[in-house]
Amino acid sequence: MVITQVAGNLCLGKGIKQLGELNSFNPLALLQFGWQIAINPWTWLALALLVASLIFYLVALSRLELSYVLPLIASNYVLTTLAAWLVLGDRVSPSRWIGTVLITCGVMLVGFIDRKPTTTQDSKV
Questions:
Q1: Cα 106 to the chain's mean position, in Å?
Q2: Which of 54, 56, 80, 125 could form a disulfide with 1 if both were Cys (CB 3.0 to 4.6 A apart)?
Q3: Is the four-CA dihedral 74, 80, 8, 24 of positive or negative sign?
Q4: Which domain holds residue 50?
Q5: pTM value?
Q6: Could you give the residue ranges of the DSSP H alpha helices within 20-125?
Q7: Which of 5, 115, 121 is nearest to 67 (CA)?
Q8: By three-state DSSP, how is residue 118 classified?
């Protein structure tokens, strides 16, 4: 779930960066930009990966509690930042690294303290 989301975000970032910056919001410029997005293979790969991630997320939610699944997804923040830095060459300042790690630690702390993963069947009994 997290890996497909990170990979999808990377592909989307790569595809959009290839198109360049959108500086005008006039209808023709938006239409041209939309067309460039539609024919870019990186955006299609990103779409497939992000849809797969959503499916995995829905399956996880059907089996586990949201309060358990959501902290798992928090690793997405660090992994996406790391991958964008390594693969796309994003510049990540020390304060952004610290903030990303703190957010992830906070979400995981809230989600995992005194929690055991229970299935939806367990909670119905």
A1: 18
A2: 56
A3: positive
A4: 2-119
A5: 0.78
A6: 27-39, 41-63, 66-83, 94-112, 120-124
A7: 115
A8: coil
Cα separation, 50 vs 54, in Å, equals 6
Report if residue 10 sits inside a domain.
yes
Give 4-21 pLDDT, tens digit per residue.
Answer: 999 999 999 999 999 888
Cβ proximity of 84 and 13 under 8 Å: yes
CA-to-CA distance for 86 and 96, rounded, in angstroms? 15
Convert the pLDDT of each residue in 38-61 to its tens digit.
999 999 999 999 999 999 999 999
105 lies in some domain: yes
Q: Could you tell me if residue 125 is inside a domain?
A: no
Burial degree of 14 (CB within 10 A; 0-12, 13-18, 19+): middle
Structure tokens at 90: 């994003």
Q: Give residues with Cβ within 8 angstroms of 22, minimum separation 6.
A: 29, 30, 33
Work out how many domains the chain is built from and give that number. 1
